[in-house]
UniProtKB/TrEMBL annotation:
Main location: membrane
InterPro entries, per the entry: GPCR_Rhodpsn, GPCR_Rhodpsn_7TM, Olfact_rcpt, Olfact_rcpt_6C-like
Keyword annotations from UniProtKB, A to Z: Cell membrane, G-protein coupled receptor, Glycoprotein, Membrane, Olfaction, Receptor, Sensory transduction, Transducer, Transmembrane, Transmembrane helix
Cited Gene3D superfamilies: Rhodopsin 7-helix transmembrane proteins
A single Gene Ontology CC term: plasma membrane
Organism, as annotated: Bos taurus
Protein name per its UniProtKB record: Olfactory receptor family 6 subfamily D member 16
Protein's job: Putative odorant or sperm cell receptor.
Membrane topology qualifier: Multi-pass membrane protein
Pfam families, per database record: 7tm_4 (PF13853)
Gene, per the UniProt record: OR6D16
Length: 314
């Protein structure tokens, strides 16, 4: 009994494995991912800055987009610095407390982003399909409440599984076959009974993804119907162009998360999971500023105005 108790430990330290098969390309991968990370942070920071600096962009849509950009910066920063260290130096040690914290922050921000995506789609639905009611409903107080609700919901849903995770025992290998502390790989390392936490994790993933997905699909379906009734072919083409670019990001986000969190247990492929996680943590945060905001004429005008002000100050 005492021997068994000694073997069952709360794992004071883990080892993040990363990508051993391509570790010989570490410096190249480090450079590529560093550039992508910096571009993502710069793009999202630019959106936040111009949204708050230009009064023309202080609308509900840009308030949600700036909140989305802030969450994306935090989301990528939770994971990418450790990934860069792995590419440069190989396997990385991480303490139990730091690992649990990273898992919670990653899951909390990830869940919040999906709820905020649903809010963004509702905002576009109201603006396009219910323009007369839009200014009244989407007032500053309502916008703040919706973002706060996303944060509270994300926090409340993720605190339970991560708390249960922190109470598991770990024995045998402490090597995490991933580049960050995600829920699934950590659960698989435990020697405790994991059936309840696996069911909880699957149920929460199903709830978060399906709820936000259904809201988004219903909103965009109504938007498409409204667009089809627009009198001008040019207006229809412009609206469809915007919607199609949004769908690219949505497909990447939902597709990668469904692939990681919704697969049956028997089909778990660690390497493919890591690839899907890279899409979710590196690619989509890089694309979001370009697709959601930087292609927008209002943003282009705001950037030109900002540059003009800078030149005049000189």
């Amino acid at each position: 009994m005492n021997g068994d108790a000694r073997n069952r430990t709360a794992a004071p330290e883990f080892m993040l494995e990363g990508f051993p098969a391509v570790q010989h390309l570490g410096k190249v991968l480090f450079s590529v991912h560093l550039l992508m990370y910096l571009a993502s942070v710069a793009g999202n920071t630019l959106i936040i800055t111009i949204t708050w600096a230009d009064h023309h962009l202080q609308t509900p849509m840009y308030f949600f987009l700036s909140s989305f950009s802030f969450l994306e910066c935090c989301f990528t920063t939770t994971v990418i610095p450790k990934l860069l260290a792995i590419f440069l130096l190989g396997r990385q040690k991480i303490s139990f407390a730091a690992c649990i914290t990273q898992a919670f922050v990653f899951l909390f921000l990830g869940a919040t982003v999906f709820f905020l995506m649903a809010v963004l789609s509702l905002d576009r639905y109201m603006a396009i399909c219910k323009p007369l009611y839009y200014p009244t409903i989407m007032n500053p107080r309502m916008c703040s409440l919706l973002v706060s609700a996303c944060l509270v919901l994300g926090f409340s849903l993720m605190v339970v599984p991560v708390t249960k995770l922190s109470q598991l025992f770990f024995c045998g290998s402490h090597v995490i076959p991933h580049f960050f502390c995600d829920l699934g790989p950590l659960i698989n390392l435990s020697c405790s009974d994991i059936r309840s936490i696996e069911m909880l994790a699957f149920g929460l993933a199903l709830f978060i993804l399906s709820t936000s997905f259904i809201i988004t699909i219903i909103s965009y379906s109504n938007i498409v119907v409204t667009i089809l009734h627009l009198p001008s072919a040019k207006e229809r083409q412009k609206a469809f162009s915007t919607c199609s670019s949004h769908f690219i990001v949505l497909s990447l986000m939902y597709g990668s998360c469904v692939f990681i969190y919704m697969k049956p247990k028997g089909t778990n492929q660690l390497d493919s999971n890591k690839g899907a996680a890279l899409v979710n943590t590196v690619v989509t945060p890089l694309l979001n500023p370009v697709i959601y905001t930087l292609r927008n004429k209002q943003v282009h005008q705001a950037l030109r105005n900002a540059l003009t002000r800078v030149r005049l100050q000189k």
